[in-house]
Amino acid sequence: MRLLRNFMILCGISAAGLYWWTLPAPLDASAMAGLTGDATRGEAVFHATGCASCHTAPGASDSDELVLAGGQRFASPFGTFLAPNISQDKAHGIGDWSALDLANALTRGVSRGGEHLYPALPYASYAKLALQDVADLHVYLQSLPADPTPSQPHEIGFPFNIRMALGGWKLLFLSNDWAVAGNLTPTEDRGRYLVEAMGHCGECHTPRNALGGMDRSRWLAGAEDASDPTGVARVPNITPAKLSWSEDEIAYYMQSGFTPDYDSVGGHMAHVVANFARLPVEDSKAVAAYLKRVPAVE
Question: 1-5, 165-169, 274-278: which range is least confident on average?
């Protein structure tokens, strides 16, 4: 009986410790203090992070790309996630959010209400965003229109609908460490920030394990295309093992959408190219320089 009692006490302590470790961990309340956002810089952050690519309404035309009403569907092995309204509507969007609220969502995966967010929002990558960039993005978002479309609930079942479990997921996969470490040139360093943080390229181009975490031992080595229900389509390997283009060819592709073989970009990558075409050409060159530093994975 004493052994059983001690065992139960140990289980209780372990459960309490696990619960504490998996609680949402927002930023300190003063994290954004002293940061003044700039809308011009924020527009560049908006395009580099691809906000419109996911949060415009399904079928929206180019003229409506800045109406961030949400509703696009993203299939995954864990269910289908629907992009929320992040327009400036105060009732159904994020019009009442502070810069700190935005930073908590993007870098910590914590909602304004203090709940874990699902990593369909790529906070596993955005965790590396500079808070100044978040402040700039916040100011730019405030300049965009409001839309009253309510956000739709995700279509996910048990046990993936238990948000507390996401605390354990974060313990395993949420990190500020760079996938490509070491001394980089200033251009390569900018490219790393664009690829690993802002552009969240690894979210699509890196294989995932059974729990949905990116397998960083195969960084950018290609993965299944979750949007293809047949399971046949692949997101390509863009490590030097398979991407043989020169830096100039990569940079030109990022700006124009044309490959060295005169093929043109398609699928989700078309959104990425459209976004990078709005950024300085130096950013595309930085991405190209970084990709040449990525370890080759067959």
Answer: 1-5
DSSP state of 201: T
CB 255 within 8 A of CB 273: yes
Longest CA span, the chain: 76
Return the pLDDT at 15. Answer: 40
Which residues, in sequence order, are CB contacts of 288 under 8 Å at separation 6+?
Answer: 191, 247, 248, 250, 251, 254
In this structure, is the dihedral angle defined by the CA atoms of residues 143, 145, 148 and 152, taken in order, positive or negative? negative
Is 73 within 8 Å of 82 (Cβ atoms)? yes
Q: What pairing do the DSSP bridges indicate for beta strands 73-76 and 79-82?
A: antiparallel
Residues 177/51/220/286 CA torsion (nearest 10 deg): -80
135: which 2 tokens?
């402040």
Map residue 73 onto helix, strand or coil: strand
User: What's the angle, vertex CA 228, arms to CA 206 and CA 223, rounded to 5?
Assistant: 15
Which among 143, 197, 52 is positioned nearest to 189, based on CA atoms? 197
Q: What is the pLDDT of residues 184-210, one digit of tens each?
A: 999 999 999 999 999 999 999 999 999
Q: Is the peptide bond before 159 cis (omega within 30 degrees of 0)?
A: yes
